Amino acid sequence: MRSSLRGIWLVVAMSVRVSPWQSLLCLAESLGSVISLLQPLYLAWFVDGVLHHDTARMAVAVTAFAASTGLSWGLGMAGCDARIRQFERVGFAFDTEIARITASIPTIDHLESGKYLDQLQALRDQQGALGMALNNVLNTFKNVVFAGGTMLLAAGADVRLLLLVVAGLPGVVATRWIIRWQARAEEVSAEPGRLATHLLDLSTTAGPGAEVRVFGLRDVVRHRLDRAVARWRAPTVDLARRTELVNAVCEAFFFGSAGAVLAWMVHDAIRGQVPVSALVLAVMLVGRLQSTANVLRWSIHNISRLTRTTGRFLWLRDYDREVRAAHRGAQPPPASLRHGITLEGLNYAYPETADPSLRDVSLHLPAGSVVALVGENGAGKSTLVKLLTGLYRPTAGRVLVDGVDLDDLDLPAWRTRVSGAFQDYARVEFTARESIGVGDLPRVDDEAEVSRALREGAGEDVLTALPSGLATQLGSSWPEGVELSGGQWQRLAIARGMMRTDPLLLVLDEPTAALDAATEHALFERYAAAARAAGGRGAVTLLVTHRFSTVAAADLVVVLDGGRVAEVGSHAELVAARGHYAELYELQARGYR
């Protein structure tokens, strides 16, 4: 009940926030419904007037019926129009809020959580329900008013009609089963829904589409897509079958009971024990009593659906608040680093994963140093980078910036002092100038700074592929857009990381994976020289690579193995130690001989 009330309050509050007057006008439809409730009574008056030759009663009945019909119709039209306009606005407001929350959560580990992604998929599948939530609340209010008024009229006509209310109760009780079935269907269909979306993307987007065609995977992907879609929609189809079966049984029971009650009343009317007007009113109310049972069932059903959908929205909002509560730090980052960055007992496990990716990592990155982070694939290098940049929050341990816990720093402010190029770089399909310049938004249109960053990122040769230079639109899907190779996109990502000239932490997470080893080595030499030239602010430059031949220029080499720090030292010290680093270095060196 509490969750239902919370969901209803959320929808009403959003509606009032979007447009208070429009929300108030929506209630006109419910008022029209109340007025129309008395129409069967007016018809009963008219019949009674005919039987008793009472023209005054007949005139009152006709006048009241006509007035109520017109007023009910007018209020219903006004309320319905307001309701449609309002639920479109409310739906847009919810969509906007979902997008805002999803995009602004300060960490990204939730994007690798199956639980989070399933909840988000279910929210997307039922996203229209948020827009219709106001509609459901208003309809429920109208239906409750309708049901209450109908039962009062039925009791006034003949108390035996209340037996039909009892006959409608099995359908209301059965709604509980249907609600459970529907909730289960939404949960079960979320994962195959995500899979179907993924397989569809494989078939319809350019990058994976090339491999699908070259390797002859179209039939395989299509068959898997068919199965995924079938699994996605099967729970909904099964839900529809079961729901219709339950509804049919309940309807049969109700109309059987209605036939028996009306036969009883007709028998009494023939014997003069029941007024004809009461019988007329009873006949007209049977349909309404049947509708009353249905509207109560659907009101419960809709409120339950609203509760589930708003519950997912509230879960998303609460998750956002939980993450923000964990990052309440307000202390500004230092202007420069004096001691460096220290990792104490750092552990991290991905969501829903038992084994941690990093285990008890304790490490000091001295201020002004160039640190190479090496290790085989899966050693935990990129995970460590995301912890340093605040994109992940440690499962245990802490990151200290000049002795201050990263949790105590203002996270957005810390990120303004971080820059870099990442392994999973973004293909920003703006103009080339903007694609690079967004690395430092205040100078996004500064062509001189963009050109500098491009030079420092060794990306000058990319300009030869751009017919309009830095003004060239990137991405072949846009008018006059130019498509770049993987290596060219990577050069622009590196240049983007060079836009900030005063970062305290510069991270280069395998930014040259698409380049050959010799080019990567030359670039890292350039990065190391630039980092030492800017050492006055104590910046730490972290070079992440799995190529051991490129790290000789680093002041410190950190070797990760299986999520742990295996060795720390200079290149020369680690080679001389003849440990894990030296072994891997020699294995790679043989490959280039």
UniProtKB/TrEMBL annotation:
<protein>
    <submittedName>
        <fullName>ATP-binding cassette, subfamily B</fullName>
    </submittedName>
</protein>
<dbReference type="GO" id="GO:0140359">
    <property type="term" value="F:ABC-type transporter activity"/>
</dbReference>
<feature type="domain" description="ABC transporter">
    <location>
        <begin position="341"/>
        <end position="587"/>
    </location>
</feature>
<dbReference type="InterPro" id="IPR011527">
    <property type="entry name" value="ABC1_TM_dom"/>
</dbReference>
<dbReference type="Pfam" id="PF00005">
    <property type="entry name" value="ABC_tran"/>
</dbReference>
<dbReference type="GO" id="GO:0005886">
    <property type="term" value="C:plasma membrane"/>
</dbReference>
<feature type="domain" description="ABC transmembrane type-1">
    <location>
        <begin position="31"/>
        <end position="305"/>
    </location>
</feature>
<keyword id="KW-0472">Membrane</keyword>
<dbReference type="InterPro" id="IPR017871">
    <property type="entry name" value="ABC_transporter-like_CS"/>
</dbReference>
<dbReference type="InterPro" id="IPR036640">
    <property type="entry name" value="ABC1_TM_sf"/>
</dbReference>
<dbReference type="InterPro" id="IPR039421">
    <property type="entry name" value="Type_1_exporter"/>
</dbReference>
<dbReference type="InterPro" id="IPR027417">
    <property type="entry name" value="P-loop_NTPase"/>
</dbReference>
<keyword id="KW-1133">Transmembrane helix</keyword>
<dbReference type="InterPro" id="IPR003593">
    <property type="entry name" value="AAA+_ATPase"/>
</dbReference>
<keyword id="KW-0812">Transmembrane</keyword>
<dbReference type="GO" id="GO:0016887">
    <property type="term" value="F:ATP hydrolysis activity"/>
</dbReference>
<feature type="transmembrane region" description="Helical">
    <location>
        <begin position="133"/>
        <end position="155"/>
    </location>
</feature>
<dbReference type="InterPro" id="IPR003439">
    <property type="entry name" value="ABC_transporter-like_ATP-bd"/>
</dbReference>
<feature type="transmembrane region" description="Helical">
    <location>
        <begin position="58"/>
        <end position="80"/>
    </location>
</feature>
<dbReference type="GO" id="GO:0005524">
    <property type="term" value="F:ATP binding"/>
</dbReference>
<keyword id="KW-0547">Nucleotide-binding</keyword>
<dbReference type="GO" id="GO:0034040">
    <property type="term" value="F:ATPase-coupled lipid transmembrane transporter activity"/>
</dbReference>
<keyword id="KW-0067">ATP-binding</keyword>
<feature type="transmembrane region" description="Helical">
    <location>
        <begin position="21"/>
        <end position="46"/>
    </location>
</feature>
